[in-house]
TrEMBL record:
InterPro entries: ComplSys_Reg/VirEntry_Med (IPR051503), Sushi/SCR/CCP_sf (IPR035976), Sushi_SCR_CCP_dom (IPR000436). GO terms for biological process: blood coagulation. PROSITE patterns: SUSHI. This is Sushi domain-containing protein. Pfam families: Sushi (PF00084). It comes from the Eukaryota. Residues 83-141 form the Sushi domain. Disulfide bonds join C85-C128. Keywords: Disulfide bond, Signal, Sushi.
Length: 220
């Protein structure tokens, strides 16, 4: 059975259930990396416990520096282990600032940054927490104005600027070309829109009708 060893120290063998219990008594075993046991023996009899300590920078599965492992009928209640973190997770349109390591000790942290014009959403600092990294941030795409879309909607930018790129969450204000006006709407600022995850909705301008006046003329 996984998690046990025979009296000879092998994982294969046979035990017998007698009136007094198992014969021989099964024992839990486990190799421990980056840690030490309280006793030289790594084997514990059924229902016995064994304390172990992790090296600095490593933690048990429960997140402690030391732990008591309990040997149950199905094996260890919590297998003795000492873990740290592998390389931090990769994110789209961004990455870790500074050099990457192959492994990180518990409590270590790294800082993320985004590519130019991308908006960092979430905490920039990520921590190694008992073998796992905390949730990394995401880099939200910017909005790039399309001149063709602006022309088809008869729009121009209200404020002059050299670049047509806006960050996520930025408000963009348009105005209509001469002779055009915004459609009738209850929105207070019909020419304003917002960049949302790299997408934006263009307002629409329509041609303004010309008023025609009729005069009654009297001729003598």
């Amino acid at each position: 059975m996984v998690g046990y060893t025979t009296e000879s120290g092998t994982q294969d063998g046979r035990i017998t259930c007698t009136a007094k219990g198992w014969c021989p008594v099964p024992r839990c075993y486990s190799e421990l990396h980056h840690g030490t046991y309280s006793e030289a023996m790594q084997e514990v009899e059924l229902n016995g416990t064994l304390w172990y300590w992790c090296e600095q920078g490593y933690r048990t599965a429960a997140g402690n520096a030391s732990e008591a492992a309990l040997c149950l009928a199905h094996g260890w209640a919590l297998t003795p282990s000492c873990t740290n973190c592998s390389s931090p997770p990769v994110i789209k349109n961004g990455g870790v600032l500074g050099p990457l390591l192959a492994s990180y000790k518990n409590g270590s942290w790294v800082e993320y940054g985004c590519q130019h014009y991308h908006f960092l959403d979430g905490p920039s600092t990520v921590y190694c927490d008992h073998g796992n990294w905390t949730e990394p941030p995401t880099c939200l795409e910017p909005c790039t104005l399309n001149v063709t879309d602006m022309d088809s909607n008869n729009l121009t930018l209200k404020w002059r600027r050299e670049e047509l790129i806006f960050l996520h969450g930025d408000l963009i204000e348009f105005e209509c070309k001469q002779g055009y006006g915004f459609l009738q709407t209850a929105i207070p600022s019909p020419g304003r829109t917002q960049c949302d995850h790299g997408r934006l909705k263009y307002p629409k301008c329509v041609i303004q009708g010309k008023a025609i006046f009729f005069f009654n003329c009297i001729f003598n």
